[in-house]
Specification:
With about 190 residues, the protein is an alpha+beta fold. It is built from five helices and nine strands, in the order βαααβββαβαββββ. Strands 6-7-5-4-3-2-1-9-8 form a nine-stranded mixed sheet, with helices on both faces. β6 and β7 form a beta hairpin. It is globular. The termini are close together.
Length: about 190
């Protein structure tokens, strides 16, 4: 099985397909649809990921060009009171919208997407990466811990939100041999 990973560009048809994929994944994982305060970035992928120079969005596609996974990376832009003065959009990237279709899980696709996003962040001068996830997502905390993240705040709130961060490692360590880079396109050989 060959999985290709590429940067999302300003292709309106592909953007629409990405939006459909993301909302279907959100419905499966969280049980709800579009919520304006949570999903502005999905409705405006251009403004959040495509146009800003230090931001990006990567998609993984199967051999039939179906979207099977996504990840977004952007300069930190949240306004959480507990992180005032800790994270900034100059030095901190943030991970968003890592989803892998359930048929393609356990093949290393999420790990590869994260490696690509981390490499992108390193190349764009970020020194650390922030994310938040939820304890309600099976395997999420374990996955991010394996990727080198540490828990900074476990809110124990209604959404069971967990905030995590990590320092970006040396770029030479970020790509493994089963990932072939071809001018912003990648292929995973599974």
């Amino acid at each position: 099985m060959n999985i290709s990973i590429k940067e999302l560009g300003n292709d309106l048809n592909l953007i629409s397909e990405v939006q459909k994929f993301l909302f279907s994944q959100i419905k499966k994982e969280f049980g709800y649809g579009y919520v304006p305060e949570f999903h502005k970035d999905i409705k405006n992928l251009n403004d959040f990921y495509i146009h800003p120079k230090r931001n990006n969005f990567f998609i993984a596609m199967d051999e039939s060009n179906n979207i099977i996974a996504t990840i977004g990376i952007r300069a930190y832009d949240k306004d959480f009171e507990e992180f005032k003065g800790i994270y900034s959009n100059d030095k901190t990237a943030s991970i968003w919208r890592l989803f892998v279709d359930e048929k393609y899980r356990r093949y290393g696709i999420a790990s590869r997407l994260f490696q690509i996003a981390e490499r992108f962040a390193h190349k764009n001068g970020f020194g650390e990466i922030y994310l938040h996830t939820h304890r309600t997502l099976p395997g999420a905390i374990d996955f991010w811990t394996k990727m080198g993240f540490k828990i900074t705040i476990d809110t124990n709130n209604e959404l069971q939100t967990v905030h995590m961060d990590k320092n970006i490692i040396n770029i030479d360590q970020l790509m493994c041999t089963s990932l072939q880079n071809n001018h912003n396109n990648y292929v995973i050989l599974i």
